[in-house]
Amino acid sequence: MSGAAGGQDIKKCRGCGITLQHASQDKPGYLPEKAWDREPVICQRCFRIKNYNEAAAVAVDQDEFLRLLGQIGSKHALVIHIVDIFDFEGSLISGLQRFVGNNPVILAVNKTDLLPKVTNWNKLLNWVQKQCKEHGLRTTDIVMCSAKKNQGFDRLLETIAENRGDRDVYVVGATNVGKSTLINRLIRDYSDLDQELTTSRYPGTTLDMVNIPLDDGRYIIDTPGIVYPWRYSEMVGREDLGVVMPENPLKPVVYQLDEGQTLFFGGMGRFDFIQGKHQSFTSFISGRLKIHRTKLERADSLYEDHAGELLSPPNRDRLKDMPPWTRHEIRVPKGSKCDVFISGLGWIKVNSDEGALTAVHVPKGVKVMLRPSLI
């Protein structure tokens, strides 16, 4: 294979048709080098589907993903778009509607197990519907679910059955949103597992997608996960990913702040209350990320002296691999109920309607925005 395979002949997967490579396990077409000369030759993802009825997550960059997405509009398809409720704006595929055309879209809102138990689910559904409208996304249905807790998946499967007809099912989403868990559930529920899934049953394609056969002759099309560089989950190393991304329900922490006070979220980010009346702010951040409060006038020197130590993660060795911080000044209007949202890190709810001038410091490229309060 030329390039990644060091001059060997280019080989295609007999399962999905993708060009094979052995350089990167989390990219499409990965095949261990020791298996290179086996016949028939299939990529690791097809191997796992064939032998274990299990799909593995793979990722492609944004331009490549949009090229793949552009194929769906001309197909007879049902689109399942999976988003992460913890990082809703960061994982929503912007402009999805123009790619899928008139095909129906079901929005699967995953990781709802992370929300506090007192969450008002009707209000949450209304919030999601408004956000979809804001982003121009028309949905046939919205299903709240948790892949980790296996909650809402039966409802999602019912919704798919109600809307699928004779359509193929395309599953799309960003990385780390739980796409593979849904694919695996669809394989178990819809594929004919009494027969051995052989590679000959997978139509060849050069679209870097895996076509998984269904009982009725249609297919689940597993698209690679899109990498959005503005999400913290794409920026931090594996050592820190488990700290930044919560695994247990969020425990909101309320801070009574005066203007001129700062909150540090480990060494990952910083929130400044610059100007406004004494008021409360609620942080919805991973419980494993320690929060430090200090005076705004001391914040720069505190970070300079203690980043990677008191303010961690990341530690000092990993800190140099992170982009430099960028300051985002955000004015919260009077009378608004808003969150200051940081993609992949969480959000800070502004509880007062008095208005406030705030600033967020995060690594360059991380998406920061003001949005209507989620909770």
UniProtKB/TrEMBL annotation:
Residue span, CP-type G domain: 62-229
PROSITE patterns: G_CP (PS51721)
Lineage of the species this protein comes from: Bacteria, Bacillati, Bacillota, Bacilli, Bacillales
Protein name, per record: Ribosome biogenesis GTPase YqeH
Pfam (any one): MMR_HSR1
A molecular function (GO) term: GTP binding
Source organism, top-level taxon: Bacteria
Family matches, as InterPro entries: G_CP_dom, GTP-bd, GTP-bd_ribosome_bgen_YqeH, Mito_lipid_metab_GTPase, NOA1/YqeH-like_C, P-loop_NTPase
